[in-house]
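Reply to dn_fold:

You asked what the input looked like. This is it:
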Amino acid sequence: SGDDAPYSRRTRRDPPSHCAVQELRLRRIAHTTPQGVSNAEVLIAADGIHWRLKEAFMPVAIIGAGAVGAALGQAWLKHGQDVIWGLRNPADPKYAALAKERLKAPAEAVKEAEIVVIATPWSATQAAVKSLGSLAGKIVIDCTNPLGMGPDGLQLVLGFDSSAGEQVASWAPGAFVFKTLNTTGAGNMAK
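and this is what came back:
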């Protein structure tokens, strides 16, 4: 049999041509790469053609850059995450340790973000969330603690009949709100 014979009819004594093997491998990869996957890369190696998913990160907007917001953002940046901080005054010198090109006004920061992290003091959270516009369809990570000063010092101001997460969800209708990262310190987050 010659090189023009179908691959299925070849025997071990009559191997296919190099081009036929490459064509078969290309057809196989076209059928095994998941449909709609745009972040796959094709690797051509001596032992054949392979595909693998590249790491894909969702853009993150962090509202607030105090201890928690700064620690989370800087840690995620170190790991390749696309992070933008949403700040009331991005030019404030207290944010000098953060990359200037990653500082924006809050509503601008969330425009391209798929994940929005709320890392504000509780007393500023309602105004911050409402200033962002619609968060419908976005993942919202609520890192806040509903604390305020009372007659005996720092105390819960919410959490007896509803939770802070429920309150944030009511301010961001249609968002997928997750309450997390509020029970560990910023020092742990930076690690």
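Confidence is low (pLDDT under 50) at residues 1-39.
Hope that clears it up.
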